[in-house]
Write a structure and sequence with these properties.
The complex is a heterotrimer.
Chain A (H helix, E strand, L loop, with lengths): L10 H34 L2 H32 L3 H36 L7 H24 L2 H31 L4 H33 L8 H8 L4
Chain B lengths: L1 H51 L4 E10 L2 H4 L7 H6 L2 H13 L3 H11 L4 H11 L7 E7 L2 H10 L10 H13 L2 E5 L1 H5 L12 H32 L4 H13 L4 H15 L7 H25 L3 H9 L4 H29 L3 H5 L20 H10 L3 H33 L3
Antiparallel strand pairs in B: 1-2, 1-3
Helix pairs in contact in B: 1-18, 4-6, 10-13, 10-15, 10-17, 11-13, 12-13, 13-15, 14-15, 15-18, 17-18
Chain C lengths: L9 E2 L8 E10 L2 E11 L4 E5 L6 H7 L10 E9 L2 E2 L7 H7 E4 L10 H12 L5 H14 L3 H4 L12 H14 L4 E5 L7 H14 L4 E5 L3 H7 L2 E6 L2 E7 H6 L4 H7 L5
Helix pairs in contact in C: 3-4, 3-6, 4-6, 6-7
The chains are: A mainly alpha, B mainly alpha, C alpha/beta.
Amino acid sequence: MEMNFNQHISGQFNADLEAIRNHMMSMGGLVERQVNNAIQAICNGDTQLADDVIRREDDVDKAEVTIDNECTQILVRRQPAASDLRMVLAVSRVVRDLERIGDEASKIAIHTLEVTDTKNPQFCQQAIRYMGEEVVKMISGALDAFARHDVDGAVEVVRTDKLVDKQYASALRELITYMMEDPRSIGQAINILWILRAVERIGDHARNISEQVIYLVSGADVRHSSLTEIEETAHKDD
Amino acid sequence: MTDSTMTTRQKVEASMARRRAAETRFRVYGMASVLFGMLCLVVLFGDIFSKGTSAFRQTVLTTEITLDADYLDINASSDERALMNANYEGLIKRHFKTEMSPSGRKERRQLYSMISAGAGWQLQGVVLDDPELIGETITIDLIMDDDVDQWFKHDRDNPESTRLSEKQLSWLNTWVDSGALHTRFNTTFFVNGDSREPELAGIRGAITGTFLTLLVTFLLSFPIGVAAAIYLEEFAPKNRLTEIVEININNLAAVPSITFGLLGLAIFINIFGVSRSTPLVGGLVLTLMTLPTIIISGRAAIKAVPPSIREAALGLGASKMQTVFHHVLPLALPGMLTGTIIGMAQALGETAPLLMIGMIAFVVDVPSFISDPSTVLPVQIFLWSDSPERAFTERTSGAIMVLLGFLIIMNTAAVMLRRRLERRW
Amino acid sequence: MSIIENHKTVGTPLSEGAKLSARDVCVYYGEKQAIYNVSLDIRKNEVIALIGPSGCGKSTFLRCLNRMNDTIDICNVTGEILLDGDDIYHPRVDVVPLRATVGMVFQKPNPFPKSIYDNIAYGPRIHGLASSRVDLDEIVEKSLQRAGLWNEVKDRLHAPGTGLSGGQQQRLCIARTIAVDPEVILMDEPCSALDPIATAKIEELIDELRENYTIAIVTHSMQQAARVSQRTAYFHLGQLIEVNATDKVFTTPEHQLTEAYITGRFG
């Protein structure tokens, strides 16, 4: 289905839609940096960076409230239809997912502080780093797909999430072996577990964002669908 | 920003003086025109009223006269013919000869000429009404001759302007002093038809003629006019022929009315052989004259009905005829009636066409049928205005007042009707 | 903008066993063509909304369905319009009973300048639907009840119809249309002259009427179309661009022009 980028008769309406899109992108950028910093913090044992992430969590929360408010205003004033309606709804949902990602990043930072306080070995560094890089790519990939209305990019993100899920499973198994070998490391391991879980969650939220991209472009609601179903829906009009 | 608004306002304020002056001037001109118009009206009506009011009073002599059965040679059981043919005039003459004792034939003639020639018919009327009165002495108001009438109403202060002789004046003054000679409301004016004698002349014939003529006009022009308006507005196809018809109808409204008289003469009287000077032919001619007015106002009334009503009716499944007769016509009727009344009021005052068809004749009898010869009020006025007698002058003005009265009533009725019926929706 | 050559209507314009079927309908005003080859089916007991920018022909098309365009001399209609399978433009068809079967409610409420009772009774009277005064009373009551006006006017049936408020007058017109027992009701922007509360009442009424009648409504308000109809037809410069289920048209329209109109990019 073709998208129509012509101007609305009401210039203010255009400006309003542009605004929520831009604000969402800014928030996305902020959240991306948060996740990046959190991963760096745990991988490098950087407590200062971790503190920074925790502090900036506020900004993420505020952005969610502001953008959601702007979306409400557009719904009230303009009663948007078709592609405009889908965009406003998509932005509203994406923003919620971004805020959750921010929360998870903050959790990573908090657990990082607890882990680096002790002198115990840090498990699953490689897994964390690897998974972390992937989910950061997923976030930027999803936001990029949103900006460019790129369905294929969105599907790619969903595929990557599957990979991240697999990695999480194997990292979990690794952690269990560590815990079985040395019961004294359980405390540490559990913190690492939370961190891994948070990263996996971030991947899920990034997947949600790309599902909204598919909704925005094609109108199909693919939440809770399998990868095969999503691939089918995305290429339905080809 | 503030400066420029102030300047604009100041400009407006500056122009206010000029504008107010212009408006005041306009209002002054308007008031002056209205006042001038009203002044003319006042002068016109003043003139007519001053001349005409006296026509509504007639001079009578109250006297007691014995209905001598022997002299009249009738009694209560005589047949109508005998009652009618009895010599009432002679009785009156004998009565006054006895009463006033004129000496010599000249004086007798002068005495008798003071009483109206119609006094005899007055007595006849009394006897015919109640033959039992024969032999009785009755009190009766005898109508006086027009010379006496004029003297009594206008000339009592300047005896030079009357034709009456000194002897006559002395008798009259005697009667005046005794109170026998006085004026009363001029019922004769309304009850009698036209007459050579001014004191006996009345407008009843003319009014009846006018009424019958207008009746014929209305009965012919209203249905035809309304039907034509409906046809032209609703059913006629929009082609060249219809256009030509429309143009002609509009032009007919401006044609000089005398032309219709000529038309009536040529066609109705000469070709169709309708008897001249009758309300029938008068009505036919006036119908031709008022039809354009009725058709034009009827079409305007129909056009004024909003199309939404028509659409509503058609949308419900009403046929074209049903839509027109159930919805359009009732709403257009007030306008049509108003136009008709105005047309009738116009026709009421028409003289020229009716002259052409012969209503100028001297008709005495009051017409009772549309095929009886008659005259109409405007023509009657025209005829009387031609007469040299002074008495006819005042009667002319009196008749004009009656005519104006009718016109005002009809036009007021039109206005009231329009106002009342138009408020409905 | 000009018309699209060889355009085929997108979506679901046609269906089986429709109540009203239009096939290749063209309408000309003298030389000028106003409707280009419109084919559309209206299903029984559905409410279909006709939307589109000003002058796109939706009202013209609506008026073809009960041959109200016959009253305009220069208007010429070609193509086929079938009501229950019978062509309504057949030369032997009498428009009078057709208009009793396919009724119309107009943009500006137009009650007759008669009493409320007579307004409703007029249609049944001329079509001979009531054999006695009692029958007529019943028809009047039923129509007013169906139009949701009975309780408000039952005590003043002989008051003039023009004395009601705008919204009541429109409901009176709807009752008047119902009184002749139509099968289809055509509504030409029925709420455009009314305030929001009156509009809301009439929209609810349309929903109730759907049970017994097929309704086609022309509207300028897209929100109204979204609220009252099951299917929506989008007209553009005399062409039928798209016909689809209403929620689909307003969330994921198929045609670009529909999308552009609905989102307010022109019109």
